[in-house]
Prior knowledge:
Blueprint: E1 4-7, H1 18-27, H2 29-48, H3 59-62, H4 64-69, H5 74-82, H6 90-99, E2 103-111, H7 112-121, E3 129-132, H8 144-161, H9 168-171, H10 175-194, H11 208-220, E4 228-232, H12 238-246, E5 251-255, E6 267-271, H13 277-311, E7 335-339, H14 345-363
Parallel strand pairs: 1-2, 1-4, 2-3, 4-5, 5-6
Antiparallel strand pairs: 6-7
Helix pairs in contact: 1-2, 1-5, 2-8, 5-7, 8-10, 11-12
Amino acid sequence: MPRVIFFDLEGPLSPQDNAYELMRRVLGDERGAAIFEIISKYDDIISMEGRENYEPGDTLALIIPFLLVHGVTAADIKKVSDSASLVSGARYLCDVLRSRGWKIYIISTSYEQHALNIGIRLGVNPENIVCTRPDLNQDASFMEDLIEEVEREILELYNQMHQMPLEDDALVKTDVFNTLRMRLDTLFFEELPEMGYDVFGVRVIGGGRKAEALKEIVERENADMSDVIAVGDSITDAKMLDFVRRSGDGLSVVFNGNEYAVPHASAGLASTDIRFLLILCDAFEHGGKDEALMTASMWEAHGDEWVRRFKRCERIPESAHISSLSDFLKDAPLFFLHNIEHADERKMNEILQTHKIFRRIVREDAGKLG
């Protein structure tokens, strides 16, 4: 049976949040960033509350009215995507896995113009990419005044919030954010539906829909969960990571994850370069999930020593699983592997802080999004 690996796209493979960048370019850097950040945080909160028929990542459905009013086209999405970089090591990782017979899939919340563009650059078959397909061929004239009014309200309240010297968790508990939340509730669940606009007419591939897509592909490939690795980094990946982790034999890996994703993974990789995932892939090929988790634990304990010994051309244990990285390790950047399944509360907090640091480095502005 084939080994199958599933990647989220934004984070593990490309650092750019394409929708965020799209909003910034279309509405202007400050205006677009503010509106997207508020809607993204709103998405995080109502997702965590478990609102019926709502999934993490539905931000990409919620911003469609704003894109329509500003005349955004599929070509605009592709143009923004063309400027996106790849995460360091992503192409190398995909090439090595393909050469070993792994089947590579991407399950992404991203709009298809971005997901297909990045996937093709990585050599992933477009048929192996599951993503969000937006409908931008709609008349938006009937909602122009409403959307422009909401944009003004969001910006005014956003500016008030950012005058408060509070951390993000505290900001979302303020009266100002509560006002924003109620305004967005009214917009998305009352005003637009009353105008005849189906807010959730776009099926965003996030949350439980990612887990569903993974399960369907595994069945179609006639694979066993003991041959499956899933890689993600954010709230949209949490249910997919959790599904693979709870399968018993599959390996879920969080790469530079946030607080919504890390607790749902089996193992973690924090680094500026994703090719170190090969250490876990090597171990998984050799002895399944148990070997991968044991290897993660051993790298936590001995990783710095092993890298130093390797650079001095000294023998290191075969259990280090570095055969695919031997040349690269000579000039290796900093990286951390974690056994998350076996982490206690103190260790989990340490892991979260480590991932937060690398997430900010790799994803830049998009690192603050859920």
